[in-house]
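Please predict the structure of the following assembly.
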Amino acid sequence: MSIVECVDIKKTYDQGKVEVEALRGVSLSIDTGGFMALAGPSGSGKTTMLNIMGGLDSPDSGSVVVDEHHYDQMNQSELASLRLHKVGFVFQAYNLIPVLSALENVEFVMLLQGVPQAERRERAETILNDVGLKGMYDRRPAELSGGQQQRVAVARAIVSNPAIVLADEPTANLDSKTGQGLLEMMREMNEKRSVTFVFSTHDQMVMDYARRLVQLRDGLIVDDRVKET
Amino acid sequence: MHLQLGWRNIWRNPRRTTVIMIAVVIGVWSMIFMGAFHRGMINQMVQNGIATLTGHIQVHFKGYRDDPAIEKSMAEPKVVQAVLEKHVPPGARWTARVRVSAVASNARHSGGVTLVGIDPAREAQVSFIGEAVTQGHYLGPDDEYGIVVGEALVEKFETKLGRKLVLMSQDTDRELASRAFRIVGIFRAEMEATEKQFVFVTLTAAQRMLKLEKGISEFCIVLPDRHEVDEVADNLRAALPPSKYEVHNWRDLLPLVDAYLSLFDTFIYIWFLVVFIAMGFGIVNTTLMAVFERIREFGLLKALGMKPWWIIRGVLTESFLLLVMGMAAGNILGLVTIFALSGSGIDLSAFAAGAEWAGISRVIYPVIHAKDVTIANLVVFILGLLVSIYPAAKAARFTPVEALAHT
Ligand SMILES: Nc1ncnc2c1ncn2[C@@H]1O[C@H](COP(=O)(O)OP(=O)(O)O)[C@@H](O)[C@H]1O
Ligand SMILES: [Mg+2]
């Protein structure tokens, strides 16, 4: 069963004098429990695609359906609500609220969702243990390494069991070893908690972790294959 | 957690937070202090006015107020006395006076004064003069030729205790009446003008000099409670034949003070607003700076699913904390300042010459009114939050895509 259905997505940006066609008709269907990489060189439209799938940006044409929610029928407030409950985001950097500790950063989304305090705390601690940050609950982002910060971001993205986690080049700012550690952890979460992950990258090593690899070039899908394991 | 988040956010830039807080503290402090200062000033204006012979209520012969001539005296004061005894509430004090314009002169100088003939014992309970004599003595009941004058008048006339002073005025026959008095006492008043204007002799001395027989210019009444004035004045009006007498309260008798009083609240609130506008600009500016420094963060929060309203609430929470802390400090500082000054008062004698025409005392004792303090705080709090809506709305308007592209 597919959790994300994108049909013929087009998006053009107006960069002053020139118009840039970031997406030129992308159709993509993602199954529940998938672990998919959206690969392509810089400027190929990865970020645009992820933003559109997450409801942060709207396509010029085409339709997006996530967990049976049709984006074109939703207003900004409904989209925000959908992001809060159904979509987890992991960005390249600066994912965390600087004044909150690791634990509080994870708790924060649950606070917005209205999860009771005791439950919030317990779930946040469990998830931080799962991503390998036991004992670092009280550290502020500035007191964590880049890799640890990304782990907190993943923990926050998956803590409320979203339909999908969208990670935009989550390892781009990490050295390769730390990046691999993060990907292994993500795959573990994908298997253990059956969270659906879509992550973008232009790094071959990262692509190797994916079970499905979708290649973007100049706003079009040029290759889509599921790896045998 | 929202409060906690706000609290931590405001301390991300301690210097800026301190600057806003100082602005709020100074704003609140100056509002409270200036409010209390002006209340003190106006209270003293009223009290001075009342103590400087005005009293709370006066009874005159009809037409005296428009033309305070000697013919407009009350020839049968007994009638009024009887009414007063019956209608004035217990604890109230009253006295009868003769009051005419006169010319005072000695060998070197002469000048216009107001001659006041008083019943020394009764007068002492009604007006300031009973306690104002600083040299010599107050009038005794039989001081037929004694006169009490103000210190400023003594200086102006280059005279002193024991010297003679001749008073001239018109008597009831429209003839020139004059009488020589000896200065037995010198008084000090809140205002120099009072010292120069009034000279006091006994009631009988004045009546004889002016051939008034039992005639009286005015009855002056002081009530135990200022708020009873209108009621008592109405009762007196009802009891006295209106064709012969007129009754005035202190507001009628002190029109300048009355006008100032009615302007006063407006004046204070305008002051509050002026202070606030200065402070408000500071709040808006610093909050805007704080918001623009965190564009990325607001974008992140929106990407996480925060609705614009929640972001507005977050920014307002930060303003709320700053305002509450600044207000607490400002209130404490304001109250401490006022408390410290309430003993000795604020000495304005350096500016007294300029201020005196308005009836302002030499020393102001600030007076705290709960109403002023509450309004000052409400102004800061409500307007402070209102002006923070602008930067808060800005923060809420960043779209996640733009904000996240912003580094
Ligand atoms: N907000 C934007 N405004 C203008 N042009 C944009 C914007 N975002 C992306 N683009 C353009 O769209 C194209 C695709 O960008 P992007 O989706 O960020 O690619 P990728 O993430 O694969 O590097 C690029 O040419 C980029 O310059
Ligand atoms: Mg990108």
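Residues A 46-47, 168 surround magnesium ion (ligand 2) (CB under 6 Å). Chain B is about 55% helix and 20% strand.
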